[in-house]
UniProtKB/TrEMBL annotation:
Classification via Pfam families: ABC_tran
Organism: Virgibacillus halodenitrificans (Bacillus halodenitrificans)
Similarity remark: Belongs to the ABC transporter superfamily.
Name of the protein described by the UniProt record: Phosphonate C-P lyase system protein PhnL
Keywords of this entry: ATP-binding, Lyase, Nucleotide-binding
């Protein structure tokens, strides 16, 4: 059975001050086996991030189903999952990386990564070692490790965000433009981690404008240009 199956998914948004409703995406269908990587491509505004945020349940879907094969709950429809179930899955099974960093105030970079590792049941000693490995891998200057992230540049925040998500080795990892503000060397570091996660069985769904970065990395590509909600055609998944 698939690790993730999105079936007939649709999401609309209401613009209250205009009393209008806009259909963001409609009739989205795809499925992934464990360890596969799906890349979603399409122009800005086509609904790529809406799909990821709905899987993560930042948005609640309006139609269809999003079936995830959870280690704790078995097959669960994220559209109807209870809040406590969603919170557990975010903490232990499903990771999300966006271009933006939203973390607890007055918490250092080192503490944030350590906390992520501790949430997975590691000891404090292990968390300390693994956090330093992760921060070093993504070449975050050691002088920044004990600083607050609100002082970081955009690229530094993004690298910290990726480190926090990937150290947990999630069963499902959602990547929303994770290389948007990174230089070439940092992109290589992200690719290395993705390859390791795939090899260990992590299933991934990612949005990338950098097509070269995706080359040879994704198993399948979902093109929003051909999704029914955008063009009236059937959704299309291409082999990577």
């Amino acid at each position: 059975m698939a690790m993730l199956r999105v079936k007939d998914f649709g999401k609309r948004f209401t613009i209250h001050h205009l009393d209008k409703t806009r259909q963001a995406v409609d009739d989205i269908n795809f499925s992934l086996e464990q360890g596969e990587f799906l890349g979603i491509v399409g122009k800005s505004g086509s609904g790529k991030s809406t799909i990821l945020k709905s899987i993560y349940r930042t948005y609640r879907p309006d139609t269809g189903s999003i079936i995830y094969n959870s280690a704790r709950y078995g097959f669960i429809d994220l559209m109807h999952a209870m809040e406590r179930e969603v919170l557990y899955l975010r903490k232990h099974e499903i990771g999300y990386v966006s271009q933006f960093l939203n973390v607890m105030p007055r918490t250092t970079a080192r503490e944030l990564v350590e906390k992520a590792i501790l949430e997975m049941g590691a000891t404090e000693a292990t968390a300390k070692v693994e956090a330093e490995k992760a921060l070093a891998h993504f070449e975050l200057d050691q002088k920044l490790w004990d600083n607050y992230p609100n002082t970081f540049s955009g690229g530094e925040k993004l690298r910290l965000n990726i480190a926090m998500a990937t150290v947990k080795k999630p069963r499902l990892l959602l990547l929303d433009e994770p290389t948007a503000s990174l230089d070439h060397q940092s992109k290589i570091k992200v690719r290395e981690i993705i390859e390791k996660l795939k090899a260990s069985g992590t299933t991934l769904v990612g949005i990338f404008h950098d097509i070269e970065f995706m080359d040879g990395l994704c198993d399948h590509v979902f093109d929003m240009q051909f999704s029914k909600g955008c063009t009236g055609k059937e959704g299309v998944i291409h082999e990577g």
